[in-house]
Design a protein that fits this description.
351 residues, disordered N terminus, mainly beta, flat, 1% helix, four-stranded antiparallel β-sheet
Length: 351
């Protein structure tokens, strides 16, 4: 199964790389998957917690939306899900509550729509537009955000895909289904994991059994067999044969791998360009990668492969538009802050 992450709006990322393969959950609930914010660099707003309430800052560390929410998620397409009491709604970049908090689960906006679920435990999923109007009526057991024009949904225990009109363009027939990436999506059928195109046709069905499969990124997808982890190209060829303990998606030309119990980075040829030496490691973004040495996190520089930030954190997330979210303090109730590319605090950790 391509299991999503546990419910938690600001989850602490778990060890290992399976979470890099399973599409990342952003909000409370576990039946839809996250989407990236498309905000222009410099315009991004970042959630912060102050005195137990959540608000937002800009890239300069200035509060733009006063902390007032029980939880807040990242912005996607100029809207951010916020929690008030048990339910979720959405605010715009000015902090206006533009969609009332009536949902128990509120997914990220992607391609103009967001998957949501009502307050009732048995309520089905629907899709709303940026005005809060119901674009696709509630009828799904589970729903993922749109990607490349299609969204994976579950009906009667089986996954299929809908278009933005809500029409089932790929009928539900899979036991699990991921989002489309680079024109392909990994699904699980009775024979195992395969890749389909936007018509629902199987285009990659290897002769060997794939136990776990990831999304395509930069033309390659990580996969696991009984022999280990490797990488497939779009023709289904194992261009990097299974030999790693774990493997994550490519980003900026490198991918995190695990070998002999420690993590490093491989290039597209399978050559280790940064030796496996870290207790944990995450993908490069903006020429920085979070790595864990012993019990603390810091960041590597891509060009040198060396630690570039002389600070240690309880947890560290990837950089986005110049800033990275970090955690310090108590693991049960951490402080959340933001640093720039050189490790200077733009927002000193608070909670």
């Amino acid at each position: 199964m391509l299991n999503p992450s546990p419910p938690n709006p600001y989850r602490r990322l778990t060890p290992g790389l399976l979470g890099l393969l399973c599409l990342t959950l952003l909000f409370a609930g576990c039946d839809f998957l996250g989407a990236d914010d498309k905000t222009a660099p410099g315009d991004r707003l970042y959630p912060v917690q102050l005195d137990g309430l959540w608000g937002f800052i800009n890239a300069s560390g200035r509060i733009t939306i006063v902390p007032q929410f029980d939880h807040a998620a990242d912005f996607s397409e100029d809207l951010a899900a916020v929690q008030i009491d048990p339910d979720w709604g959405y605010v715009d970049r000015k902090g206006n509550l533009v969609i009332a908090p009536t949902y128990r689960i509120a997914g990220p906006f992607s391609e103009g729509l967001a998957p949501v679920r009502g307050a009732g435990l048995s309520d089905p999923y629907a899709y709303i537009d940026a005005s809060g109007g119901v674009a696709i009526p509630p009828r799904f057991e589970a729903a993922r955000p749109f990607s490349e024009g299609l969204a994976a949904v579950r009906l009667e225990g089986q996954w299929g895909y809908i278009d933005q009109k809500g029409d089932l363009v790929i009928p539900p027939r899979f036991s699990d289904a991921g989002s489309f990436s680079e024109g392909l999506a990994v699904v699980e059928n009775t024979e195992g994991r395969v890749y389909i195109d936007r018509k629902g046709d199987i285009v990659i069905d290897p002769t060997f059994t794939i136990e776990i499969a990831g999304e395509f990124s930069e033309g390659l997808a990580p996969f696991a067999t009984s022999e280990g982890w490797g990488y497939l190209d779009r023709s289904g060829n194992p261009v990097i044969p299974p030999r790693f303990d774990e493997a994550g998606p490519f980003s900026q030309g490198l991918a995190v791998i695990k070998e002999d119990g420690v993590f490093g980075y491989t290039d597209r040829s399978g050559t280790l360009v940064i030796a496996a030496q870290f207790r944990e490691a995450r993908a490069f973004t903006e020429n920085r990668a979070a790595i864990r040495i012993n019990n603390s996190w810091t960041y590597l520089d891509k060009s040198s492969g060396r630690v570039i930030i002389d600070r240690q954190f309880l947890d560290a997330e990837p950089f986005a538009d110049g800033l990275a979210r970090v955690r310090t303090g108590d693991s049960k109730n951490p402080d959340v802050g933001y640093i720039d590319a050189y490790g200077a605090y733009v927002w000193y950790p608070t909670n």
